[in-house]
Amino acid sequence: MRAEFEAALPQVAERVKQPGEGATVNVRTGEEATSGWAVARAGHEHVEPKQTFSEDSLKRYAGSNRDALEQAGYMGLWHPSRVTGDRPRGVYHDVTEVKPNTYQGGLESIVQGYSHDQDAVFNIDRFDELHMHPNTRSQVRGTRSAMRTLASQRPGGKQPDIADTPPEQLAAGLKARRPVDTGTTRLDPDDPLVAYAQQIAAKKRGTPMA
Question: Which partner for 93 in 46, 73, 108, 157 could form a disulfide, CB atoms 3.0-4.6 Å apart?
Answer without folding.
Answer: 46
